Amino acid sequence: MTIRKTGMGDIEALAAVERSAAELFLGTHFESAIGGETLHPDKHARAIAEGAHWVEEQGDAIAGLCCAHAMQKSLYIDELAVGADFQGHGIGRRLMETAIAEARHGFSAVSLITDRTLPWNAPFYATLGFVEWDKPEAAILAELADEEADGFDMARRIAMILRL
After folding, report:
1. What is the domain count for the chain?
2. What's the rounded Cα separation, in Å, for the pair 118 and 147?
């Protein structure tokens, strides 16, 4: 198991990890994510260029990824995904701990938006110290508006923050 910064040459493999990770949503209100859109390669490329993208490798395979970017004073987590064959082994936690450790060098917080009702989403982030962000900054409100425009059920979405 190795966590490393993602390289531009990894971008093609990342969509497969995201699609595999989406299998976790089978039988939930998020089931439409299976086979759906993944992050645009440009978003991955931006995060890689900013030094805010990490993967965990197991053997020759990318088992998981964490894609983030600078958003005002916080490091915003765009995507945390662990391939179906690798879930349940702490990879997501290790990737998030890496992002949090990196964020301590220049950011005052780590932020994200997730589902509040799936038992493995918001509760997972809470174990890392994230709390609900009652009054999110303008950039997070814009992300929430984008999600609403994309058809997300806003009653199920939650902005979370970990103050560093």
Report:
1. 1
2. 17
